């Protein structure tokens, strides 16, 4: 199961996203897009390692209307 279908694109909800930062230090500025890409990478690794896709599939089967697929 690919979790991308569960993620929301920030470009769709934030105007001037290039002016938003995940972190700002004296020597480095991490844009929100860079930050989200890194968080998404780690989330995917956790999903794979912990086999959370089966839990998400089970949850969807129990909560979504019959025939729905996310």
Summarize the structure.
The chain is mainly alpha-helical and 70 residues long.
Characterise the protein shown here.
There is one protein chain. Helix content is 44%, strand content 10%. The protein is mainly alpha-helical. It has a two-stranded antiparallel ribbon. It is elongated.
Which terms summarize this structure?
70 residues; mainly alpha; two-stranded antiparallel ribbon; 2 helices; 44% helix
Helix and strand arrangement:
Blueprint lengths: L20 E4 L4 E3 H19 L1 H12 L7
Antiparallel strand pairs: 1-2
Low-confidence stretches: none
Task: Note the main sheet.
Answer: 2 strands, antiparallel
The whole-angstrom Rg is 16 Å
> Care to count the β-strands?
2
Helix content: 40-55%
Structural class: mainly alpha
Average predicted confidence as pLDDT: 83
Distance between the termini: 10 Å
Q: Which percent band covers the strand fraction?
A: 5-15%
Number of helices: 2
How are the strands of the biggest sheet laid out side by side? 1-2
Which geometry do the CA atoms define? elongated
Write down the secondary-structure element order: EEHH
């Amino acid at each position: 199961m690919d979790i991308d279908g569960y993620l929301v694109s920030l470009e769709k909800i934030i105007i001037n996203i290039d002016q938003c930062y995940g972190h700002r230090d004296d020597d480095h500025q991490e844009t929100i897009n860079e930050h989200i890409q890194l968080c998404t990478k780690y989330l995917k690794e956790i999903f794979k390692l912990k086999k959370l896709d089966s839990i998400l599939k089970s949850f969807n089967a129990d909560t979504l209307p019959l025939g729905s697929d996310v």
